[in-house]
Amino acid sequence: MVTLLLYLACVLIWGTTWYAITLQLGVVTPEISLVYRFGLATLCLLVFARIRRTNLSLSARDHFFAMLQGLTMFGVNYALIYYGTQYISSGLVAVLFTTLTFMNLFNEHWFFGVRLRAATALAAALGLAGIGLIFLPELRQLGTSATVLHGTLIVLAGTYAASLGNMAAIRNTGTGLPIVSITVWGMSYGTACLAVMALLRGARFEFDPSPDYVFSLLYLALFGSAAAFVAYLELIRRIGPGPAAYTSVVVPLVALALSTWLEGYVWTLTAAAGVVLVLTGNLIIVNGARRRSQPASATR
């Protein structure tokens, strides 16, 4: 049940952040908004860690891997995805980010020698096929514009960076380090990386005091970053990065539901068929994760 709740928390929170991100665009450049988002999230986690008296001290070796996780999970990947979104639609970005599932499966095998589970691979394939059907109009743009191809390559690079961050998270959570501690340091390093990137690009540290910007920033920092990433890292510890990354496949469905309600998204028969495939893959992943987590839970 805890695993399922963590899974649902990641899906529901990150599914709603797509709309919140649109409220961040305009006055403040994306890099600066990311600095605000992760900087605020880091402060919130730091306060939480102090209240719970979590030990935040790390060895030099652990700091290196926390920095590696931070740069790839909270820094470079987000910057690249934000850059890529300037060239392609958010729908296509959502499609491309679902490749995180396959990237995690490959990297987990490459770095840790983990055997690829047939059920996980099947679920990932169903999910990717479903997302492809849902966003078929966006995918058709790939062969028609050099700009779209440029944005696609940037987003894929950002997605692979996120996968490397997941691999660093496996090492960090596997050594028994407190997840909150790792996240605090990781976000600190990621925020510093984003600030340096913003300065190198000549971005100005402006702020938009409008209610839409402020409330969306608070939501993205408190829930979309602090709460969701702690839940996701715990999910990786429980079921592994391959199944955990399947949240990225289900997240666009939540985003579509929100878009239907707030933005008038029109459903098609093809999109509905895609939803069926994604939900089928989701059921396979959740059931497999539940069976694998039962023995571990029984020993606690």
Descriptors for this entry?
mainly alpha; 13 helices; globular; 300 residues; single chain
What would you note in describing this structure?
This protein is mostly helical. 81% of the residues lie in helices and 0% in strands. The chain is built from 13 helices and no strands. It has helices spanning 2-22, 30-51, 60-85, 90-97, 100-112, 118-134, 136-139, 146-174, 179-200, 211-239, 241-245, 247-262, 269-298. The model is unreliable at 293-300 (pLDDT under 50).
Helix content: over 70%
Q: Mind describing the biggest β-sheet? A: none
State the end-to-end distance. Answer: 14 Å
Mean pLDDT, all residues: 83
Structural class: mainly alpha
Q: Give start-end ranges of low-pLDDT stretches.
A: 293-300
Q: Radius of gyration, Cα only, in angstroms?
A: 19 Å
Helical run tally: 13
Helix-strand pattern:
HHHHHHHHHHHHH
Overall form: globular
Strand content: under 5%
What is the number of E strands? 0
